[in-house]
Every structure is written in structure tokens, then in C-alpha cells.
Write a structure and sequence with these properties.
The complex is a heterodimer of chains A (163) and B (124). Chain A has 163 residues and is an alpha+beta fold. Chain A contains three helices and eight strands; from the N terminus they run αββββααββββ. Chain A is 31% helix and 29% strand. In chain A, strands 1, 2, 3, 4, 5, 6, 7 and 8 form an eight-stranded antiparallel beta sheet that branches. The longest helix of chain A has 20 residues, at 82-101. The radius of gyration of chain A is 15 Å and the shape is globular. Chain B is 48% helix and 19% strand. Chain B is globular. The chains are: A alpha+beta (163), B alpha/beta (124). At the A-B interface, helix 1 and helix 3 of A face helix 1 of B.
Chain lengths: 163, 124
């Protein structure tokens, strides 16, 4: 995976967290995710299509997610509420959109976000596509971005509209 | 001043609504996608729309194209994570009057709203 893609996500999460939550983000050493490694309790997931395909996951322990969502919305929310999932989805949407803008490629689209909440869940990336974990530390706790992207092969390249 | 907020994220609509209320705008209607918005513009008659791009059912760009077929003047501001220059150009060609990239600060959104209303000759 092109290392500039990882830099794009680092810059984007720092921008989103500082602009929306006034929260500095310290970036740790990126690593390759091993197969079937568990994510944290709360995962916001975005699909990527077009000339690049893959997934972007923002994963946080539920305590961290609660604190971040509280800063974002200005209110406390139950982690099993639809509004909580909506807020997590919007955060991963902003991070992904910001990173995508730095790819300098016209034909990459991102999906509307999905959010999975529950301990012990696993988000698998497409077989054969490496997944890079970017660990981040904030005053609200640990956050991880999982970036699993590859160039699309022509026959599977489906350019979706920017929905 | 009637303002229509079009965004599939309730969180984002609430944030924008809070900024609009601080600016003194209280007549606010919400729509969760482009189709929902098209069904509401007739009765609500907005003076300004803030439109997200990435939405299910009908995206913001399709909404703008549809809306502009019958309304050439109501100011539209795209508020989106789509930050590429090509997207901005597509949106302007479709008929948006201004563009705000998420994440945004309350000050930035306020400035863009004020600027857009002034440019379009709408009394705020």
C-alpha cells in the first residue's frame, strides 16, 4: 500500500478531531493487522470503490467512543442508541472523506458508513488486501484506524456515484 | 428566513441546527436525503438549503440537479466530506452557490451562510 495513503489518514484524523472536538491526536507506529485480530467494541466502517477498493474502519473501546461522541454531540448517549451509531458513522465519514481528498484521484468513492457495536467483533478485510493499523492516542482514550486499500483490478472496478 | 437542512446524519443536522439558532435562524426543517428534501421543498419553501453530498436513496448532487430544474434562485450550500476540486466543480456546475467541507468550525459555517445570503441578495 502506498505510504502516502497512511499519511492521508493520519492528517485527516488529526484534522477531524482537532476541528470538531478540540482534541489532539498522538499517532503511534502503524503496523500490519494480523488475520482475525479483534477490533475494539465500536467500529465505524466505510467502503471504498472506484479505482481503489477496500475498507476503512475507525475502532474504539466503548468508553472512548462515548467520550468522543459526547464531545461531538454535546450530550451523553447510550452506546446502543441509533444516535450514538449515527455520530460514530459521521466521524469515520469525515476522516475517510478528508483522506480521500488527498489521494489526488478523481474516481474513488466512499460509501455511507456502517457501525458495529459489541465486544469481540471482528472486521475482516478482503482476502489478499493488507490492512494497516494506525494506533492513535487521545485524551478520551485509544482509537485505531484500519486502512485496507488496493488498486482495483479492471473487471472488479465498479465506480459508484458519490452517494 | 426558512432553512432546509438535508443530511442523513442526525448528528450533523443537530450541529448545523445549533449553529443556525445561534445566528438567529429558527425556522428550520430537516430532510434525511435528497428525495425527502424534494418532498418537503414545495410546502416549506426554503430561503436557503444546506445539502450533504453522501446520502442514501438520493444523494445531494442529484437533489441539487432536480431542485434547480424548477428553482434557479434559492441559495444552496453543499456541506460535505467530498473535498476534491473536481467534486466542488461538479457541485457548482449543478447549481450550488457555496461549498463547505466537513469538518468545519461553527465560525466557518456561519461565515459561508452569511456570505452566500449576501451574494444571492437574500435578507438574512
Amino acid at each position: 500500500m502506498d505510504p502516502t495513503y497512511i499519511s492521508a489518514f493520519v492528517t485527516s484524523i488529526q484534522n477531524v478531531f482537532s476541528t470538531m472536538f478540540q482534541l489532539p491526536v498522538e499517532i503511534g507506529e502503524p503496523s500490519i493487522k494480523t488475520d482475525r485480530a479483534m477490533t475494539h467494541d465500536v467500529s465505524g466502517i466505510i467502503g471504498v470503490s472506484g479505482s481503489m477498493v477496500g475498507t476503512i474502519v475507525l475502532s474504539m473501546p466503548s468508553e472512548t467512543a462515548s467520550s468522543v461522541v459526547s464531545l461531538f454531540t454535546g450530550m451523553e448517549m447510550e452506546t446502543d442508541s441509533a444516535d450514538f451509531a449515527d455520530a460514530v458513522g459521521e466521524i469515520v465519514n469525515m476522516i475517510s472523506g478528508g483522506a480521500k481528498a488527498s489521494f489526488q484521484r478523481k474516481d474513488v468513492s466512499i460509501s455511507c458508513p456502517s457501525v458495529v457495536i459489541g465486544s469481540g467483533h471482528i472486521v475482516s478485510s478482503q482476502s489478499g488486501t493488507p490492512c494497516v493499523l494506525i494506533p492513535c492516542t487521545t485524551d478520551c482514550g485509544e482509537v485505531v484506524i484500519e486502512v485496507s486499500l488496493r488498486e482495483a483490478v479492471e473487471e472488479s472496478s465498479t465506480v459508484s456515484t458519490a452517494a | 428566513m426558512r432553512i432546509l437542512l438535508i443530511d442523513d446524519s442526525k448528528t450533523m443536522r443537530n450541529i448545523q441546527k445549533s449553529i443556525l439558532k445561534q445566528l438567529g435562524y429558527t425556522e428550520i426543517e430537516e430532510a434525511c436525503d435528497g428525495q425527502d428534501a424534494l418532498s418537503k421543498v414545495g410546502a416549506f419553501k426554503p430561503d436557503l438549503c444546506l445539502v450533504d453530498w453522501n446520502m442514501p436513496v438520493m444523494d445531494g448532487l442529484t437533489f441539487v440537479k432536480n431542485f434547480r430544474q424548477s428553482d434557479k434562485t434559492t441559495p444552496l450550500i453543499m456541506v460535505t466530506t467530498e473535498a476534491e476540486k473536481s467534486r466542488v466543480i461538479d457541485a457548482i456546475k449543478a447549481g450550488v452557490n457555496n461549498y463547505v467541507v466537513k469538518p468545519f468550525t461553527p465560525d466557518l459555517l456561519s461565515e459561508r451562510i452569511t456570505e452566500t445570503l449576501a451574494k444571492c441578495g437574500v435578507a438574512g
